[in-house]
C-alpha cells in the first residue's frame, strides 16, 4: 500500500517535467506562479477585462481601491510617468491637484 | 515578393527611402506615432500621434530628370485633431491619442479623413487654396476696413494666384456615442456610412448625421461579472456594404450581415481555431487575443494578428485559418517576463500588400516581418537609423534562438522590447511601405532597376 503512493507521485512529477520540456509556455507559467503564488487561475475573466475597460480612471471607490491594492501585492505593475503624479488614496483630490493636461501646442516633429 | 540579398533572385529588394521625425534619444510621449494610413491612391500618407496631432505627407510628382527615383513624401498638412479632455462625471481622463485614421475615397478636389481618439470621431476636410480675391472695395490690402468716405470708385475684386495653402477643417464631430474606448473605425463601401467600435459596442454612423448613430453590436452582459471577452477590432467588407467582421480578446472573429437584423448580436459566421486543451496555459487566452483584423483587398480573406502569429482565414471556412505565420515564436519562452512588463498586451497591426500576395506585421527591436503567401518565404527587416542611407538595401535580420550565435544574428535576450513596431502601412498598388518606429516614420521602397 505505502509502496504505491510514492510511485504515483513520481509519475505525476514526471508528466510535469515532460510538460516543461515540451512546452516553453508551461515552463513560463510555472515561473510566473512561482513568483506570484496568489495569482488567480484565470488570467482572463471579468476582473481583468473590467480593469481594461476602466483605463484612464483616476479615482475609484474604496472597494476598487482595496482590490487593486491586493493585486498590487502580487503583481508590480509598471508605472508610467503620469501614474507617479496620480492623486489617489488617502486624501480627497481637488482640481488643483490634478496634473495639468495641456494640448500639444508644439507642431509634430514629423512635420519638421 | 520577398526581399533577399542574392543578386539573381526574383525577390524584392527593399531600400531605405526616407525617415521622418527627430533623431533625439529622449522621446516626448506626444511624438509617439499611434497610427499610419495611406489614402486610396497612395498619394497621401497620414500619421496620428499620442499628442492628438495628424501629419499628412504627399507624394511629390515624379520628375522626368529622376526616372530612377520614385516620388518622395513631403509634408502636406499638419493639424491638431484631438485635445485631452477630462470627464468629471466619471473621473475619466480622455487621451488625445489618435487611435485610428481612415481615409474616405476622393470624390472632389478636397481630401477627407476620419480620425478618432478613445471617445470622439472627427471628419476632417483637407483642401488646397491657391487663389485669393484681391481688390476689395471696403477693405484694404491688409484686411482693415476702409473709411467709406474715402471710397470714390467701385471695382470688382479679382482672383489672383497665391502660394499654395493647405487647410484642414473639422467638418463633423461624432461624439458621446461610446462609453468604452474606441479601437476601430471603418468606412463602408457605400461611402455614406462608417462604423466605430469600442470594447463592447459597435455603432453605425451616417457621415451627415452627428447627433445619432445606430448600435449594431452590443456584447455588454447584463451583469458585468459575466464579462468574458471584449471587441478588439472591426472592419467593413471592402465591397459588400452589408458585411463586417469584428475580432475578440478570446481569439475569435465574427462576421455579421446587417441585412439579417438591426442588431447584429447573432453572427452569420464564427471563426475560431480549435485549441488542444492539453496545450492550454495561463498565457493561452492572453496571447490568443486578436489585436488587428483586416480584409484582403479581394474581400475573400481576413487576416488576424495575435501576439505571436498572423493568420489568414478564408471567409468560406470557419473552423480554422488557411495559413498561420509565426512572427516571433522565440518569445514563447519569454512570456513570463513579457507578462510582467506588460509587453504581452502590445497590440500589433497587420497589413496586406496591394495584390494580397504578401502580408506584413511588426515585432520588437524595430523589426518587422513580411510573409509571401505564394512562395511561403518570409523575411525580417529592421527600421533603424543605421540603415538610413538613401537607397540603401535593407539586409535581412535574424534572431538567434539558442546555442551558437552567428555574427549577424541577434540573441533573444538582446532584443529591445521598448522598440516596438505596432503600426505599418502598405501603399495600395506599389511596393512602398511606411513603418512607424516609436517617434520616427520610415518609408521604404523596393529597388527600382
Automatic annotation (TrEMBL), chain A:
Localization in the cell: Cytoplasm
Q: Does the keyword Phosphoprotein apply?
A: yes
- The principal location of this protein is cytoplasm
Lineage: superkingdom: Eukaryota
* Compositional bias annotation for Basic and acidic residues: 12-32
Query: Compositionally biased, Low complexity: which spans?
Result: 1-11
Its function, per the record, reads: Protein phosphatase inhibitor that specifically inhibits protein phosphatase 2A (PP2A) during mitosis.
The entry's protein name is: cAMP-regulated phosphoprotein 19
UniProtKB/TrEMBL annotation, chain B:
Any one of the GO CC terms: protein phosphatase type 2A complex
Q: Which organism is it from?
A: Balaenoptera acutorostrata
Lineage start: Eukaryota, Metazoa, Chordata, Craniata, Vertebrata
Q: Which family does it belong to?
A: Belongs to the phosphatase 2A regulatory subunit B family.
What domain of life?
Eukaryota
Any one Gene Ontology MF annotation carried by this entry is: protein phosphatase regulator activity
**Entry annotated with the keyword Cytoplasm:** no
- Record keyword Repeat present: yes
Identify the InterPro entries for this entry: PP2A_PR55, PP2A_PR55_CS, WD40/YVTN_repeat-like_dom_sf, WD40_repeat_dom_sf, WD40_rpt
User: Keywords on this record?
Assistant: Repeat, WD repeat
UniProt-recorded name of the protein? Serine/threonine-protein phosphatase 2A 55 kDa regulatory subunit B
